[in-house]
Amino acid sequence: MGINKNFSDKVAIVGIGHSEFGKNLEATELELACIAIRAALADAGIEASEVDAMGSYTWEDTPEFEVARNLGFGEIFSFTQIPYGGGAGAAAVGQTAMSLAMGLANVGVVWRSRKRSDPTKRVWAKTSSEIDDHWKWSRPNGLLRPVDEISILARRYFHEHNVGREALASIALALRGYANNNPKAGMYGKPLSRQDYFNSRMISDPLCLYDNCLETDGAVALVLVRSKRAQNCLKPPVYINAFSQGMSKQHQLMTDYHSENPMISSSWSTAKNLWRQTDLRPEDVDVAQLYDAFSPLILFSLEAYGLCDVGEAATFVADGGLCIDGNLPVNTSGGSLSDSYIHGMNLITEGVRQMRGESVNQVANASTCLVTSCDSTPNGALLLRN
Amino acid sequence: MIETVPAPRIDNPLDRPFWQATAAGKLKIQRCSVCESFWFPARVACAHCPSGELVWEVVSGKGRIWSYTIAHPPLLPAFAKYAPYVVAVIELAEHASLRMVGNILPEKGWAINAIRGDQLAINQDVEVDFMKLEDNVVIPCWRLITLV
User: Fold this and answer.
1) Residue range of the domain that includes B79
2) Same domain for B79 and B39
3) Which of A43, A293, B18, B35 is the most exposed place for a label (fewest CB within 10 A)?
4) Going by C-beta distance under 8 Å and a sequence separation of 6 or more, which residues neighbour residue A7?
5) What is the pLDDT of residue A4?
6) Is there a domain that residue B40 lies in?
7) Residues of chain A contacting B, Cβ within 8 Å
C-alpha cells in the first residue's frame, strides 16, 4: 500500500497552555478554552490574529466561531472535529497538523475544554429511556458505563494471561507516584498505598475506584506550525514524527465485543500504521503518555503499540516498568488517573513537556514520546520527537 | 437521570425481526445466504459478500461465558437497587466470534442480581432465556447450566 513518510517531522508543536484544573470551577467552558488557548499562543510567541486552523473533538461544546471571535483569530481556513470522545485527542492534533503540512493553513490551534466534575455531566447519566444505536445491545442489561464496558475486557485479559488485579494496582501506584511529585496534579499530596488500592470500593468488578480516572474541570490547548516556522518560536519545537488514526475491522464503539478477537483493539490498527510512518521503532520510545481513563487501557496499549510483548504487560508494570526509573516511564504527570482528566489532551501537553525537558518528572535525555488516545474506541496516536 | 431501565427500540426495520423473535421466546441471528456467516448485531449487508441476502435464523441458544463484570454504584436508579449485579458477554455455540451481552439468571423470572460473581467463571456453559422489560420488549438473558 502507498504508505510514505512525507508527513514525518513537517509540523511541530510550539505552544502549550492550560487553564486552572479543579472541581466545580466557576468559569464557563468557553472562558476556560480562551484561557488555555491564550496561554498556548503566549508560550509559542504567536499572535492570535495569525491563527487560521482549528481542531478539536466532536464532543467539544465550545464552537470554533465562538473561540475564534473571542480570541481575535484571523480568517480560518481549516477546522476539524474528531469523533469518539477519548479516541479523538491525537487525531485532533494530527489532522490539524496535516492541514498545515499541506499548506492549507499556517498556524493551528487544538483545544479541549470540559467541565466534567459535575456528576450529571457524565455521559452515561444521560442515557435515554429508549435506545436505538449500538448501545441498545448492552445498556438494557445494565452494562451502562464506560467502566463496565472496559471491565469486561479487563476480566477477559486476566483470564487469557493468568494475571489479576495486582497489575492494575501497580499502574495506579506508578501514576500516583508521579502525581505526588507534581504540584499541579489533582492527587498531589495524596499518597496511595497498595493496601489503599485493595481496600477501595469496587466500581465494576474487577475495577475499583483507583482504576478510574479523575473528574476534572479545565481546558488544554496546543499551537502547531510547520517546522520551518517552528525554529523562530519561543520554545524548542516538538516535531510530530508520525501520526495515524485507527479503527479495527468489525469494531464497535466501547462495547467492542463482536469482532473476531476483541482483545485486538483499534490501537493495533493505529500502531501498525503509525510504525509504517517512521524509521523509529517501539524500542526507541523513551517515554509514553497512554490514554488512561481506566487503568486496564494501559495494559492493552503497551501491547498494541509493541512496547512490550503480548501477555507481558502485567509483568512489565509489576516490575515498575512505568516508573521514572523503569523500562518505559508512562503518564509522567500522573495521567488521567492521578493528575487530571481533560479527555486525553493533557497527555499530549505532558508529552510536549517531556520533549522540551520541562516535565516535573523529566525523563533524562528523552528524545521520543508516544502519545495515544483511547484504546477501546476508534483512536489515534502521535509519535513526538525533539 | 431516567428512572426506568433503558429499553431497546424494537421497531427499527434493521433489527425488528430480532425483537419479534425474542417476544416469541426465540433467539434469531442474521446469517448470510451465500457464505453462511452469522452477524450480530444486525447488519445492512454481509461484510464478506455484498450480494448475499441476510436471513434471520433461529440459533441453538447455547453458549458459554466469554467474560463478565459485576456492576457497583453509581448506577442509573433502575439498576442501583440491584447492585451489585453481573453482566456477561456470552459466546454463542454457533461461532466463536458471535457474542452477545446479557444478564445471567439462575431461573426464569429471577432478578439480575440473583447470581453472585463468585458463582461464575469464564467458559461456563449457559443457555438462552428471555426477560420482559415492557409489553412487547423482551430481551435475551442466560441461565447457567450448572452452578459452580
Assistant:
1) 60-148
2) no
3) B35
4) A97, A98, A101, A240, A242, A243, A277
5) 76
6) yes
7) 119-120, 124-132, 134, 136-145, 148, 151-153, 155-156, 159, 201-207, 250, 252, 255, 257-262
* Whole-number pLDDT of residue B147: 65
Residue partners of A30: CB distance under 8 A and separation at least 6: A62, A66, A67, A70, A113
Residue A117 banded pLDDT, cuts 50, 70, 90: confident
Residues B16 and B87 placed together within one structural domain of the fold: no
Q: Do B25 and B89 belong to one domain? A: no
CATH number reported for the structural domain that contains residue B84 in this entry:
2.40.50
Mean pLDDT of B110-117: 95
Burial class (CB in 10 A: 0-12, 13-18, 19+), B43: middle
Do B65 and B114 fall into the same domain?
yes
Rounded to the nearest 5 degrees, what angle is found at the Cα of A198, between the Cα atoms of A197 and A203? Answer: 80
Does residue B49 belong to any structural domain of this protein?
Answer: yes
The model's pLDDT over A189-216, given as tens digits with 9 standing for 90+, comes to: 999 999 999 999 999 999 999 999 999 9
Cα(A187)–Cα(A172) distance, rounded to whole angstroms?
Answer: 12
Domain match, B51 and B82 both: no
Assess whether B47 and B98 both reside in one domain: no
B42 inside 8 A of chain A by CB? no
pTM of the full structure: 0.97
For residue B148, the model assigns a pLDDT of 55
Whether chain A has a CB inside 8 Å of the CB on B139: the answer is yes
DSSP code for B52: P
Residues B29, B64: one domain?
Answer: no
A203 closest CB neighbour out of B72, B82, B139? B72
The pLDDT, as a whole number, for residue A50 is 98
Domain count, chain B: 2
Q: Which grid cell is A94?
A: 494530527
Predicted complex ipTM: 0.97
| A249-299: pLDDT as tens digits | 999 999 999 999 999 999 999 999 999 999 999 999 999 999 999 999 999
Interface membership of B69 toward A (CB under 8 Å): yes
User: Residue A201's closest chain B neighbor by CA?
Assistant: B72
| Cα A215 to Cα A340: distance, rounded to the nearest angstrom | 7
**Do B29 and B100 fall into the same domain?**
no
